Amino acid sequence: MSVGNVSATLSGVPVLSGTNFKTWKNKVTLVLGCMDLDHALREPRPAPLTDQSSLEDRRVFERWERSNRIGLMIIKNTIPETFLDTMSEENDVKHFLDTLEERFVRSDKAEMSAVLRKLVSMRYKGDGNIREYVLDMFHLAGKLKGLKIELPEDVLVHLVLISLPPRFSQFEVSYNCPKDKWTLNELISHLALKRRGNTISVWHQNRVRRPKALKKSIKS
Predict the structure, then answer these.
(1) Suppose 67 and one of 39, 97, 206, 207 were both cysteines; which one would form an S-S bond, judging by CB atoms 3.0 to 4.6 Å apart?
(2) Which long-range contacts (CB under 8 A, 24 or more apart) does 44-51 make?
(3) How many whole angstroms separate alpha carbon 75 and alpha carbon 24?
(4) What is the pTM of this model?
(5) What is residue 185's predicted lDDT score, i.e. its pLDDT?
(6) How far apart (Å, rounded) are the C-alpha atoms in residues 191 and 41?
(7) Contact by Cβ (8 Å): 10, 70
């Protein structure tokens, strides 16, 4: 592979950040595979060479050593120094990658707890666009899915319903009936109509009350 092709291939690997580990790892392993440098990721480190080592032993060892050395160089080149400073001096590319993955798994667990806590504690106060509120809850559920926790849609609908103020309780009663199971879009439609109905009702009440206020002002 020419220098130009190597540069073009490596440019396709994103810099590792706190949120893209899975994408980054897939890209790195793909690049190493395309460059035939993933041998050290697939095979264990061979035994050290001795005077009795055969030519085949030397060939296997040299291939693994080259794959390991260049693989480490490529991987470290796509990792910020702030991450590298926290890593021990590991000279085995597979162990290096595994150690890095363990750290991000722990980070994912912390993020998972934070997102789940936020989702179950959300409450609609009655102000703002209810459609956007519901979509925000489903956006958090999407984050959980990315962290390997997938909540069924009917569970999410229940979470939305129990997060609403008492004036929406009729929807929870209706949804709990055996024949009523709503999708996300149906739930948003029902809630939006309820919200619109409340707004129109308040507007009519204000229209009805206004003439009485005018009469009082005229008498005075």
Answers:
(1) 39
(2) 45/92
(3) 10
(4) 0.52
(5) 85
(6) 53
(7) no
